[in-house]
Amino acid sequence: MIETGIPKLDKFLGGGIPRGKSLVYYSQPGVEGEIFGLQTVYGTLKTGGTCVFVVSSTIPDIVKGQFDEFGWDISSFKDKLFFVDSYNPLIGAPSNEKYVVSNPDKIEDFHKTIMDIIKELPPSTIVFGSLSTIMDLCGEKETIEAVRTWNKMAMLYDHTIVYNFTAWPYSDETLNLIKGDLFNSIISIGGIAERVIFGQYFGIMKSDWAEVSRKSMLFRVLRPGGIKIFIPKILVTGPFDAGKSTFVHALSTRAISVDRLGTTVAMDHGHVEYKGFSADIFGTPGQERFDPIIKLLSGESMGVFLIVDSTNPSDFIRAKHMLDITKSYGLPYVVVANKQDLPGALTPEEIREQFHLPEDIPIVRAVAKDKIGVYEAFEVLLDRVTGGI
Amino acid sequence: MSDTIEMVDKLLTDLKKVGGVIACAAASRDGLLIRAIMQKEQIVESLAAMSATMLGAAETATTHVEMGIPTRVIVESDHGKLIVVGAGPKALLILLTSPDVGLGLILLELDKSAKKLKEILT
Questions:
Q1: Shortest CA distance to A147 belongs to which of A169, A132, A157, A125?
Q2: B32 and A30: CB-CB below 8 Å?
Q3: How confident is residue A232, by pLDDT bands cut at 50, 70 and 90?
């Protein structure tokens, strides 16, 4: 099993890609699909594997620079990472790489180099930087035939073989083969412009070793950082003085608030980078006179933190009402039982009882001012937002 | 998807060219950033959220006193101006200008862009 290093994808795939299997990152044109292959290379190296990267659309030195851009230091993996240069020969430039495809527009030459690598190297991860480029140079049918053989050979020699593919307008026959039985697994990568959320997503279209979940994940690409699961909006709400702003600040990598006279009058806004996730957090005011603003800001949320003051059960009715105002019913939510350090704080069980909360709604104990419980709450909510796989 | 983004980018690029404009951004009414042309990228998301709050608060305030929907929100400081206008029911436009610039042409162009953005997003 090798890890792709892409958050959530490894989990979806049941741990990663098993040896001997093939996988294609099938991208729509215009989305940042090629990073998936790159991150898989780094994922393999980081877990001690050997990796081959077939460079087709630029010179290997630029690809090495891309690793740097993402903050992935590959210099310590010199004897574990090999590049196949199929670009320099194309422009007539000399190559410094160990493996070179002398005529990148002839599939026979490609075939020979790849076959040599498959036979020569110990079980490795072979990543093709751009299958589409090879196809453009060598022809669709010819390339597909070669890929079929490479996949079988990889299976025999226990390599993991991974392709980046951009779905340019090739013939239907070609695209159907690629989306069909040519590969053991297909990860589809696309873009959406739904309502006002502009973003990129990935999802598993097919996998013959893991159960396929139909769920897609929004992602963004950070430099440095690579692919991060992106959650555009998480709402933090709750009654007056429950500690919402404190919670937003405790959780966020950076955050701002509009506070006047000790209370939030407009909103809190924070940004979280945590364990492969990138999320924006919106904190609402708690006092009733600001309710119109809450309604304005709560649209498009993907999940909700409901913060309550554990020492103040009389506010629980207001807390429930706030779920209502934010139209949060139906969204995944987590109740954060704040101020657990104060005398008289109720336990989560007592809160559940007094609040009449269903058994399946998680309640997390927290002391937001000391950052206790905030990341636990975040993980619980992420699990709910992303389907808990 | 890439088409819509391209159109929004084109609109913002054009708006940015107007004299005195330092930065501009499109955001949703509920405070999510759509696209921006701005130097300090980290603050853009917060700015989008805050601008949506300001416009929303202004609309709520004026509606309550039966003044109708405000045309725009202009915030002036010694170091520049911040203008927020609604662009249809889903989106809004945010503009930052240098402090000493006259607003006539800018507001004209901003209103035009807002109408275009509304069209793009429907």
A1: A132
A2: no
A3: confident
Number of domains chain A contains: 2
Range of the domain at B61: 2-120
CB contact under 8 A, B30 and A29: no
Both structure tokens of A309: 């003051």
User: Chain A partners of B91 at a C-beta cutoff of 8 Å?
Assistant: 196
Within-domain flag for A1: no
- What is d(CA B1, CA A195) in angstroms, rounded to the nearest whole number? 11
Annotate A26-64 with three-state secondary structure: EECCCCCCHHHHHHHHHHHHHCCCCEEEEECCCCHHHHH
Q: Which of B46, B47, B121 to mutate to test the interface with A (most CBs of A within 10 A)?
A: B46
CA distance linking residue A350 with residue A331, whole number of Å: 24
The total domain count for chain B is 1
- Rounded to a whole number of angstroms, the distance from the CA of A254 to the nearest CA of chain B is 9
The verdict on A209 and A303 lying in the same domain is: no
At B43-89, the pLDDT tens digits run 888 899 889 989 988 988 898 899 999 999 999 999 999 999 999 98
Whether A280 contacts chain B with CB within 8 A = yes
Length of chain B measured in residues: 122
**Domain end call among A160, A190, A224:** A224
One domain for residues A200 and A149: yes
The answer to whether residues A105 and A24 belong to one domain is yes
CB-defined contacts A:B, below 8 A? 80
Q: What is the pTM of this model?
A: 0.80
Residues of chain A contacting B121 with CB distance shorter than 8 Å: 196
Q: Is B118 at the interface with chain A, CB within 8 A?
A: no
Interface predicted TM-score (ipTM): 0.73
Across B87-94, average pLDDT: 93
Q: What is the pLDDT of residues A234-282, one digit of tens each?
A: 999 999 999 999 999 999 988 888 777 777 777 889 999 898 898 999 9
Query: Is A261 an interface residue toward B (CB < 8 Å)?
Result: no
